[in-house]
Amino acid sequence: MSYFPRPYYPRTNQSDNENNWSKFTWPAIGLFSVFATLFRSNSYLLDSVKLLILGSIVETGRVNHVSPRRRLAQWLLERFKLQYSITAQFDEGDPAYEWIIHFLTYQKVWRRSYNFRVFATNSKRKWSIGSSEINATTTTKGSAEYVPTYESPQLFRWNGYWLEIRRTKAQNTGLSPQFGVSNNGTIFVTLYTLDFSVLSVLVEEARQRYIEVSRPDVIVHMADAPHYTPTFTWTNVKRKVRRSLSSIILQEGVIDSLVQDAKEFIETEEWYHERGIPHRRGYLLHGPPGSGKSSTIYALAGELGLEIYSLSLASGFVDDSFLQQAASSIPKNSIFLIEDIDCAFPSREEIDDDAASFIPGFSAFSSSPFIHTPSRRSCVTLSGLLNVIDGVGSEEGKLFFATTNYIDRLDPALLRPGRIDKKLQYSLATKEQAASLFLQFYPESQSQNLVLEKSGECPDSDSDFNSNSFAEIIVRLSEQFASRVPLDEFSTAELQGYLLTCKKQPLQAVEGVINWVSDERTERRKRREREEAEREKARKKRDSLRMHSLPPQFPPSAPGLIGHQYMSDHDDSSSKAGLSPETYESNDTSNVSVTTADRRT
Ligand SMILES: Nc1ncnc2c1ncn2[C@@H]1O[C@H](COP(=O)(O)OP(=O)(O)OP(=O)(O)O)[C@@H](O)[C@H]1O
Questions:
Q1: Per the record, where are the segments of Polar residues compositional bias (predicted)?
Q2: Cα–ligand 1 centroid distance for 579 (angstroms)
């Protein structure tokens, strides 16, 4: 189908031509005169009508195997579309694409589609329809998702306007199939009106509906593969069930103050603009693994209805340019989360290796597979990271969150107010936390339904097992459990893992915790010994490589020379560096402490 009038080819059959002329041209000219009189004051409309009529004449006279009437109708439709419609394009990977695709699903545009992709239900977001919506007699629920493919154009009415939907599928470019490089899918929405405000109303309605429907979930966008397309795409979108703030067990008041701070930040955009302060706020959550850092961020996002855009600097493909593009594609009022931010900074072992690589010949060996240096170092540089945090895109009401297990590795430049405004320190489980976690597993309200085995170790006598005292028993058991868990030795995640082994047996959980602690200690000791042995082996290998790589003019035995210096540096650092997560110890007795560097005060 053509968008432009094609050249006129004289027809061989004279009588046909005369027929067409008399059939269409005279009425067209008549119409032309009427419209010319009616719309003399409106030159745009007049020009459009003129174009339509002249085009009709040309199109009708063209030589083609399709009947002139049909061609005329097609041509008129195309002209009408061009002249009297607005077409909006939504690209996959952009949040607006999610809004519109959800909106279309809600509008039941899929009804006209008979093509579906079927997926086993998983946490990936798909705007699917229930099986019962396809076939009222189907009873299957929850195990599969039916995603309409909308391959053919769909027409539907919304708010009194006709809308036409076309969709192009994502396609593999074939450039680099191992990374799944693809041209993303696109949705074109054509609105039959010239009023642009209709389009903005449509987009806003789609956005609002999307937010409303997403409420029970927290949407997490991740970029888990390198990308080679000009526009950045958050390739992996997942939904996580929203977690209540009360399920996060921290020191009293900590989570409330965090929520309050974030809310206030979102509501005070004007305040920031009036004072010329960039509207961004940075939070650093640091502490041992499994102490609740990520859970806090997910719960906060659920509470505030924000989406999370998450990157881990431990991913090998994240470099400065990737980070920059990812950050600038995050919409306003979202959470930008960088996990393992310490990966942008070298560990002491890596500093040693980097320095050693200046020794002639050493660099050739530094990547040797025989050297055991489990590097998590990312390709992101400090300046790249700071540029992203300070960048233009980061001023648009974004909450920046970073997590780390090793705050001591972070550069002070990163920690200054304006980049990190609030620090929350997490620690291994306290007694109070252990008790709260126990109560969360065996809520007082449901305790009568739990299997409370009567045994000699039960804290109270048989008389305690009447329904009124179950709640009391659970509280007492929680205290007993907490007293048997050593302070600051296990993370909340580890305690949670243990309690999961006796989900419905609180008494058994209390009885078994002493053995569990002892088993865990033995296991840790063995792991530490294994790791220490491996480190020692790697250290010896590295030292020997360094010695052999020294040029003859620098005998390693000579005092004050480079090789000697590096060896002694390394020896000094090796005892401190490379602490495994299990050996991470906090001296804090509190679970979380908060440091605030507030620019507004
Ligand atoms: N303070 C806490 N309150 C409630 N649950 C917790 C807490 N800490 C850990 N958990 C539980 O432990 C698991 C791991 O927690 P989470 O991922 O938040 O830890 P993390 O500190 O982010 O760990 P990492 O540093 O390894 O990313 C989650 O399932 C969470 O439910």
A1: 583-601
A2: 20
